[in-house]
Amino acid sequence: MSGLKYELKQIAQNTGMRLDAQNFRLVGYYRDLLFMIQHDRHNKQYLLHVWAKNDLPEERAQLERYLQDFQAGNPQILSRQYNGNVATLQIQQIKPADEAAAALTQMMDQLAAYLLGHQFRSCCQDCGREDGVNLYLLNSGYYFGCDDCYQHLSEQAKVNQQQVPSNLVAGIVGAVLFSLIGVVLWVLINRLGYIAAISGLVITVCAFKGFEIFGKRLSTAGIVACVLVSLLMCVFSTYASLCWDIYAALQEYFLDVGIMDAVQLAPVMLEDGEILGAYARDLIIGIVLGAVASFGYVRNAYQMHKQGFVSNKVFTGRRSNTSVGEEDQSMNLS
Domains of the chain by range and CATH? Predict the structure, then answer.
């Protein structure tokens, strides 16, 4: 937690919200509403989210006006947004850290006072249930909902996904063609004397992208095919590296020699146990490094196929037998 900004630590101590040090994120119930603060270090900004729902259109319209006035009274707020479920403020970084912690906490207090005074609630954004709700990072946005609505959302996404036909043969062709980009990168890095995980990652990503473009939709068979294509292209990359090494060696002694001469000589060179062992070692290391680098991408592709979207649980909300102030604020920091 040493890399986490001091102001977020300070707010966590004062409010009881939970820290996600890896993602520079603070999340939890504060004054009976779900808040989240993200520190965008690159742009030197904070994103302050509060989940607030009210079924009355006039109350939502009034909240829009309140946020407009709230921004006018706080010049450090760069922008505001409310989509009917969550209000988001984009805030420029405040220094020093003590003042930042105080300012952000004060903003949460003011927002909570208004929202609670106008009967806004942190609840499932679909059905309005307040207990048994979780916060998910869903594709590129957030979803705050109960288990039933989350399951319904997944089922609907899968139905929409199934409406797109999948062509396994065309997908495999696309996977092979696109993965050649990674093969070129593998050979070039090998010529520099390195074995890089990025090569295996590029081969895998390109194989999946090629399958999606040519095959339209990833199926279970498509995912297996992409993994097998990636492995085979790693083998092909190693063999291509051998051929290039032979060609470079021949160029030092013979002027009239082509790449096909090196390709024809490669099987003969592999009969030498020392050469075979060296390139086999490079292949195994490359596959292992590539597998480690590609694991998250393949996992997301499988999750997209099974659920219809990629999601990670950010926060587990209150259970039905939990009273206010004793809510379960356990976090999934994956």
Answer: 6-139 (3.30.1460.10), 161-309 (no CATH)
